[in-house]
Amino acid sequence: MTSQTPVNELVSKPYKYGFITDIETEKISKGLNEDVIRLISNKKQEPKFLLDFRLRAYQQWLKMKEPNWANLGYPKLDYQEIIYYAAPKQQEQKKSLDEVDPALLETFEKLGIPLSEQKRLSNVAVDAVFDSVSIATTYKEKLAEHGVVFCSISEAVTNYPDLISNYLGSVVPINDNFFAALNSAVFSDGSFVYIPKGVDCPMELSSYFRINSGDAGQFERTLIVAEENSSVSYLEGCTAPMFDTNTLHAAVVELVALDNASIKYSTVQNWYSGNEKGIGGIYNFVTKRGQCKGKKSKISWSQVETGSAITWKYPSCILQGEGSVGEFYSVALTNNLQKADTGTKMIHVGANTRSTIVSKGISAGHSSNSYRGLVQMGPKAYGSRNYSQCDSMLIGDNAEANTFPYIRSQQPSSQIEHEASTCRISENQLFYLQSRGINFEEAVSMMVSGFCRDVFNQLPMEFAAEADKLLALKLEGSVG
Amino acid sequence: MAPCQQWLETLPSPSGVLEEIQRNGRDAIFKQEFPFKALEEWRLTDLNRLEDVLKLPIATETSNQNLLKTNKWPEKQKCGFRIVLHPNCQPYNSLDLPPGLRVLTIDEIHKNIGNTLGLLNVNNDWPIRINEAATHQLLALKVEGRNVPPIELIMPAQTGEFVPTRVIILLEEQSKLELLQIALGSGNSTHSHILEIHLAKEAELEHGLIACGNGEASCMANLAIMQKNSSHYSLTSIQEGWNFSRFEPRILQIDGHATTTLKGLQVSDHNQQVATHSLVRFSGPDGNLDQLHKAVSKDKSHSIFNGLIEVPKIAQGTNAKQLSRNLLLSKSARIDTKPQLEIVADNVQCSHGATVSQLQEEELFYLCSRGISLNQSTSLLLKGYFQEIISHLPAEANRWEILDNLLGKQG
Amino acid sequence: MTSKDANLILEISDLHASVEGQKILKGVNLKIHAGEIHAIMGRNGSGKSTLSKVIAGHPSYKVNSGSIKYLNKNLIDIEPEERARLGVFLGFQYPVEIPGVSNLEFLRVATNARRQNRGEDELDTFEFEDLVHERIKLVQMNPSFLERSVNEGFSGGEKKRNEILQMALLEPTLAILDETDSGLDIDALRVIASGVKQLAQPDTATILITHYQRLLNEITPDYVHVMSEGKILHTGRKELAIELEKSGYDWLNNSKDLMEEN
C-alpha cells in the first residue's frame, strides 16, 4: 500500500509526562546496608516489628541471586548506586492539603490528578505518592464514614499496626523473589486499603505514583484487605520524568479477599519508557499477588501496560477459598526498544475455583512483548476451570511477540483451556475502513482498540477512554 | 565423583567412523555439568531417573537369537526392507540394500553428520553428547528416487543395557520414502538414539515412530530434521510404556516453503515419566506446520510436553498451528504442558492451543445414551483419541501387535 | 386404573429440575401412551430441551423433585446407558462429534447393547453390516458416512440422518426427538419425517420437540403441548400448533392472563 504514512515516522509523540518538578528534595546517600534500612525506618518512625521485617528481608535478599530467566538482557544494576529514600522537603506533619507545597499540587494537576478540594475528581479518592512519600490522600473523611481506611502505608503502620503486622508479607513472603525481598527491606511508601465487613466501597480508590528523582529507586508497597462481603475497585497510575539513566521500580502489591469479598485492581502503567534508541526509562520489576482466601471471593486484575523500558510483572491469584474467582485482563503495548514480559499465575488450590485470562500484546518497532503465564490445578482443585486467551498483534517486521503458557494439572475433574494466536492489522481491513472515508491513523487506532476491547471493558469507566487514548498516542505512526 | 565422569570411565576407547565425534562427545560430557532443575529444559525432569540411565553397561555384541528372545516382531513385509539396529557390533556397510538405497561414503558422512544439530544449536545438549560419547557405529543411508521400498528400522529391546544408536538419512531431490521406526524396551535398559534426516528440495518423507517400553526401560530419542524448500516431512510418533522417556523431535525448515506435519501421542501409566520436547524453526518464508500432540496420563504418572515454534523475521508468510491436548485420567497423575510461540515476523498466521481435562462429559453421555456402558464408552473414546494419531502412521505399522496391545490396554 | 393406563409408556409427575444451580423445570406433568405422538413446543429457554435431557439422564441436570415413570419403572436413579437399553432414545439437537471413533463400530456396539437387553443375540460384524445397510435406506444416508468418525465433519442434515439411523437400529419404545427439524432443508426434513413415521409403531411412543409448525406438517401429532417457564402451559390437539404458528406464543400468554383475570 503506497499511500500510507511510513510506520515509524508517526510513532514518536513526545512523552508528555516527562517534565521534572523543581523541588528541594531530601535524599539519603546512595547505597544499601543495614544502617540505611535503620535510617529509613527511623525517618518513618516505625515500630520495631517493621524494622525487624525489613532487616529479615535484607538478610534474605543478600543470599538471593538476581533472576535472568526471563531472557530480558539489561545491564547489570549496581544496587550500591541507587538512592533508597528521597522525599520532598516540607513542614512536619501536614495537617491539610493547604499545607502541601504548591509545587507538588501543581505537579499532580499537570499529570491530570488535581488534589485540591475544588478541582479533585468527584468520585475517585486519590492517594498521591511522590518519590518515596505519600503527599496527600483525598476523601479520607468521607471514606471513614463508611469505615473504609484509605491512607498511605506509613500512616497505616502508625494507626493500624495490627492489620499491618497481620497482613504485610502474608501474600508475598519476604523471600518470594529477589525484587520482592529488596522491596520488603527498603519500601518507602504506598497505599493501604481496608474495607470492613459488608461494605461496598462507595467510590473508586486510586493511587498515583510519580517518580521525580532520577537516581532514586521507587519501592512502593500496597496492601489491600477486603473483609467478608465487601468490595472495592482500585486503580493505580504511574509516570516519571525523562532521564537518560535507568531507574529501578520494584513494587510489591498484596491483596487479600475474605469470604464473598471482591477486589478489582486496575493499573495504567505509563512510566517513562526510554527514547527511541532505548536510552533511559524505568525498569519495572513488580510483584503483584492476590489471595482469594475466602469462599466465593474474587480478585480481578486489569492492566494497561504501555510504559517502562523493561517490565517484568505477573499479577497473580492464589485461589484458595472454595468457589473463588481470579481474573486477569491485560493489554501490553511495546514500541521502540521496550521489553515487556508479563502475564499471570493462577494457582487453583480450592475446589470449584474459576479463572479467566485475557491477554492482548501489541508489539511495534524493535520491541519485544512476551506473555508468560502459569495455570496450575492443585490436587484439591476439584471441578475447577481455567480459560486463557492470549493474542498478539505485530506491527512492523522487527517486533517480537512470544507466548509462554505454563500449564500444570494434578486434578482430573478440572479443565484448562488455552488459546493463543497472532495477527497483524491486515491490509484488507485497513483498506475497507479507509474506503469508508476513515483516515489511516484513525483506522489503525480503531483496530487496535478493537483488538483490546475485551480488556478495556474491564477497566473502570473513567479510565477506559483514557487507556484507549494512551494506546493511540503510543502507536501513532507505527503502522505503515 | 560426578555421575557422568564415572560413566565416562566405563566406555570402551573410541574407534571407527565416529571416533572423532566420540572424543568430542566425551570431552563435552566431561566438562558439562549434569543437568539440573534450574535449567528450563530440565525443570520438570526426574533427574534421578536420568542419572540411573548412566548406571547401565554399554551394549556390546548381541546375537539375533538373543534379541529374538526378548523381542517379538511380525514377519517382514515382502516389498519392504527391514534393518535391525545392532549397537556397536555390525558394520552397516555390509547391508544388502534394495534399489534406491545406498550407504553413504565416508566423505558424505563427514560432510553431513551433525550439521542439523549444529544449526539447531542443540549439538551441545546433554542427551546428544551422551549419545555421541557412547556410539561407535553409524547407519548412514542415501535415498534416491521415488520407488524406494518402505523401510522398517527396528531398535530391539536389550535388557540390562545402555543401547546407543545413531542414524543419518539423506533424501536426494524429489525422492520419497516411507520410514517406520520401532523402538522396543524391556527390563532395566536405555535407548539413546540420534536420527538425522536431510530432505533435499521436493523430497518427501512419511515417518512413523513407535516407541513401546516395558518395565524399567527408558528411552531418549533425538530427531534432527532439516527440510529444504518444497519438501514434505510428516512424523507420527507414539511413546508408551517407558519408565522414563524423553523424545526430542526438532525440525528446521532451512529455507521455508516446506510442509511439516507432526502428530504425537504419549501415554504414561503407573509411575512413569514421559516427555516430548519439540522444536520447529522456520528459517525461511512461507513454511507450514500442523502439529497435534496428545498426552494421556494415568495412575501416578507424569506427562510433559514442551513445544516451541520459532518464527524469525525472515519467516514471513509462515502458517503454523500447534495443539496440545491432554487427558488427565487419575487423581495422582500430573500433566505439564507448555506450547510456546516466538515470533518476529508480522505477516504470519500462528496459533497454538492447549487443553487439559478428563474425557468430555458430552461425548460420554452421547455414547451412554445409546446404551453403551460407561466403561465401554470410556474405552471407545480413548481408542478414538488414540486413533486420531495412529491413523497417520505408515500402513505397515498395522502389522505390529504393539498397536493392538496399546488399544487393547484401554478398557 | 382404566384400560388406557395399561399401555401407559411415560408418566411425568410434578417434575422439578435444575442445571448448574439454576432451576429450569418447575413442575412438569405429562402422560404418554403407546401409539401416540406428542409435540412439545415453546420458546427458546422454556425448558423443552431440558425436559428431554432429564428424561435421557444427562448427568449435568439434577432432578430436584417429582418422578419420571417409564413402563412403570422410576427412571430417575437409572444410568443413561441403562435407560437407552430399556428403549428410551433421545435424538440430540446438536449431535456430538467424536473424532477417532468409527461410526460403524459405535452403531454396532450400541445396537448389541440394546439387543442384549431384549434377550436377543449379539450381531457379528457381518450380520450388523447387513442390518445397517438395510436401515440406512430409511434415512437415505450415504453409506460412506459409516466409515467416518461419529458425526465428525457431518453437515447439519447428515448429523440428523445419523440420529434417525441410530433410532432405526435401536428400535426404541420411547423416542424423543429434540429439534430434529432445526437446520434442515425441506427435502431433508421430509426424509427425516418419513423415517420417523415409519419407525412409530402401535406399541411405541414419540415426543417431537420443536419450535416450528414445519415438522408437524409432515408428522401429525396426537397432542400438542406448549411449554413456558419450565411448565406445560397448554395442551391441545394439532390445531393448537396451527394456531401458534399463526398467532405466535404471545397469544397464549395473553389468553392465560385473560383466563386468570376471569
Structural class of chain B: alpha/beta
DSSP helix count of chain A?
12
* Rg of chain A (CA only): 22 Å
Largest sheet data of chain B? 9 strands, parallel
Bin the helical content of chain B. Answer: 10-25%
Cα distance, first to last residue of chain B? 47 Å
Instruction: Indicate the overall shape of chain A.
Output: globular
Evaluate the radius of gyration of chain B: 21 Å
Percent range for β-strand residues of chain B: 35-45%
SS class of chain A? alpha/beta
Question: Would you kindly provide a brief summary of this structure?
Answer:
By secondary structure, chain A is an alpha/beta fold. Helix content of chain A is 23%, strand content 34%. Chain A has helices at 7-11, 34-43, 48-63, 102-110, 140-145, 153-159, 161-167, 178-186, 427-435, 440-451, 453-456, 461-475, and strands spanning 25-27, 86-88, 124-130, 133-137, 149-152, 191-195, 204-210, 221-226, 231-239, 246-249, 252-257, 262-269, 281-292, 298-305, 310-313, 316-319, 325-334, 339-342, 345-348, 354-363, 368-377, 385-394, 400-409, 415-423.
What are the main properties of this structure?
heterotrimer, A: 480 residues, 34% strand, globular, disordered N terminus, B: 411 residues, alpha/beta
Helix/strand layout:
The complex is a heterotrimer of chains A (480), B (411) and C (262).
Chain A: H1 7-11, E1 25-27, H2 34-43, H3 48-63, E2 86-88, H4 102-110, E3 124-130, E4 133-137, H5 140-145, E5 149-152, H6 153-159, H7 161-167, H8 178-186, E6 191-195, E7 204-210, E8 221-226, E9 231-239, E10 246-249, E11 252-257, E12 262-269, E13 281-292, E14 298-305, E15 310-313, E16 316-319, E17 325-334, E18 339-342, E19 345-348, E20 354-363, E21 368-377, E22 385-394, E23 400-409, E24 415-423, H9 427-435, H10 440-451, H11 453-456, H12 461-475
Parallel strand pairs in A: 3-7, 6-8, 7-9, 8-11, 9-12, 10-13, 11-13, 12-14, 13-15, 13-16, 14-17, 15-18, 16-19, 17-20, 18-21, 19-21, 20-22, 21-23, 22-24
Antiparallel strand pairs in A: 1-2, 3-4, 5-6
Chain B: H1 3-10, H2 19-31, H3 47-53, H4 64-70, E1 81-84, E2 101-103, H5 106-112, H6 115-119, H7 126-134, E3 139-143, E4 151-155, E5 162-171, E6 176-184, E7 190-199, E8 204-212, E9 218-227, E10 232-240, E11 244-253, E12 259-268, E13 273-282, E14 288-297, E15 302-311, E16 319-328, E17 334-343, E18 349-357, H8 361-368, H9 374-390, H10 401-409
Parallel strand pairs in B: 1-4, 3-5, 4-6, 5-7, 6-8, 7-9, 8-10, 9-11, 10-12, 11-13, 12-14, 13-15, 14-16, 15-17, 16-18
Antiparallel strand pairs in B: 2-3
Helix pairs in contact in B: 2-7, 8-9
Chain C: H1 3-6, E1 8-19, E2 22-33, E3 37-42, H2 48-56, E4 61-70, E5 73-74, H3 80-85, E6 88-91, E7 98-102, H4 103-117, H5 125-135, E8 149-150, H6 156-170, E9 174-178, H7 186-199, E10 205-209, H8 214-218, E11 223-228, E12 231-236, H9 238-247, H10 250-261
Parallel strand pairs in C: 3-10, 3-11, 6-9, 9-10
Antiparallel strand pairs in C: 1-2, 1-4, 4-5, 7-8, 11-12
